Amino acid sequence: MRRQPELTQLQECEYLEGQSPVHAVHRLYAYRKSLSTKAFAARGKKLIRCPLCLLGVQFCTCEHRKQLQTDISFMLIMYDDEVLKPTNSGRLIADLIPDTSAYLWSRTEPNQQMLEQLADPQYQPFLIFPEQYKQPDQQVVSQIAKSGLIQDRKPLFVVLDGSWRQAIKMFRKSDYLHQLPVLSISPDALATYALRQGSHDFQLGTAEVAALCLAAIEEPENGIALQRWFELFIESSLLGRNRRLKSSIKPIDHYIENFNTAYQAALSMSKPTVER
Question: How far apart are CA 96 and CA 53, in angstroms?
């Protein structure tokens, strides 16, 4: 079984970015990077990147990162080198949601800490996955009322982070996921969150799906804030690629302002419902 990153790798993350606290995906990135025998050859590999957000240093968004107030937890189960990809948007969930964990997927040796978290009685897990792939006896919901949750349990959204083909493989070959109720986002809702033209190669909009999950559990304002954070990430990454005409580029301040506005709106509406 692959171990979680050692303290020295965590200290490396903290050294690289002293002002922004590291989170689970940063730690997993450091761990996965330590396993590599050669550098990950991402598109734009010559670009000098921030070691945390993985955006070009001139478009780094770390200073704008803020945590939302929420009772929701997320678990990212990531397909092998997904965590190394600068285009991965799963890390954006961990940027904003304080209780986010992240694990590498293994077909034969699932992470024991991950299994323990899924079985932890303080959590009520839901797998985020399309209904058509569920097992015959799996419960499916499209909305979650907080009043209907098991008392004193914290909702835990489990997200399979990779391409659709990889996510399906992860689901089908992981029996422990077949025991979880499925939160299925409708195709119509997903369509309204489709990535803008020119950014379709970003990995499935994992953060966008998470934003829809927040809306499905009565936290729409937090969902909008995560969506705005995703839009800032997309724009900053595209600017780093310099793929578009200058006339089509909005000032980055526009996206920063949109996120800050959405964040303040979410903050004003936050009313935690689970006492720890």
Answer: 13
Buried b (16+ CB within 10 A) or exposed e, 130-154: beeebeeebeeeeebeeeebeeeeb
The letter for the amino acid at 51 is P
Strands of the sheet with 182-183, listed across from one edge: 100-104, 73-78, 154-161, 123-128, 182-183, 140-141
206-216 and 220-241 are packed helices; what angle lies between their axes, rounded to 10 degrees? 170
Per-residue confidence band for 105, with pLDDT thresholds at 50, 70 and 90: very high
In the numeric block, which tokens belong to residue 204? 């499935």
In one-letter notation, the amino acid at residue 195 is L
Q: Which residues pair with 56 in a beta bridge?
A: 49
Q: Comparing 21-35, 61-75, 219-233, which segment has the lowest mean pLDDT?
A: 21-35
Nearest to 193 by CA among 172, 160, 216: 216
